[in-house]
Amino acid sequence: MTPGVTVRTLPDTLMLAEVAADWLDSRIARRPDLTVLVATGQTPMGMYGRLAARVRASTLDCSGVTAVQLDEYAGLPDGDPRSLRDWMMRSFVTPLGIHKVVPLDDPATFTAQVEALGGLDVAILGLGPNGHLGFNEPPCGPDAPTRTVTLTPESLLSNRSYWNGLNVPMQAVTAGMDVILGARETLLLVSGAHKRGILSAALDGPETPAVPASYLRRTALTVFADREARP
Q: What single string gives the DSSP state of each residue in 91-153?
């Protein structure tokens, strides 16, 4: 594993959520106008819930934070329950009292919008079952731009459980690896025994397009994993 990468194993997902919330809380305290790339998925939800509780208790103020959307399914109509933007709004933006959002509407202008903000301060990420970040499906190198991609069978299967029997769209738009790897700090959250092998490959194996997450070792990376994912 690359020196400078911080990996902490937590006993369970409850402790993972609390420690991760502390991590982001400390960054917002130092820089209230933080720009954050926001992942959805199950693992970050506990962290977001704890941050929301702190906002309600007036111990955390996120009103100056800018939330940047990580990914979205392609071609969804307004109001579609599969929308990752809606999930981001419900779980992160609205509960934390955030007013500024950069949606992933147009791949052609998204990177320029992020650059106009001064880049990403923090990228919050989950780990895909095949090593993808956002929907940067393998094989994918570190310079891959923001674009529309066709999802792999692994990603379709992984995301099917979220939508109560609804079909998972075959394509998605994702922030590029160039945007993700440009963040000043990266927080990777991983839980579950089914992620053990791919997390090991990302942290301990070679940098390779076959595991896009392996390139995170080039960043200021903090990994919080539960004991099932990182014994």
A: IIITTTT--EEE----HHHHHHHHHHTTS-SEEEEE--TTS-BTTBPSS--TTPPSEEEEPPH
Is residue 132 annotated as part of the catalytic site, yes or no? yes
Q: What pLDDT, on a 0 to 100 scale, did the predictor assign at position 2?
A: 60
**Domain assignments of the chain as residue spans, ordered by start:** 6-226
> Any catalytic annotation for residue 194?
no
Domain 6-226 coded CATH 3.40.50.1360 = yes
Binned at pLDDT 50, 70 and 90, residue 52 comes out as very high
Q: Is 167 a catalytic residue?
A: no
Q: For the segment 21-42, what is each residue's pLDDT rounded down to a tens digit? A: 999 999 999 999 999 999 999 9
88 neighbors 69 (Cβ within 8 angstroms):
yes
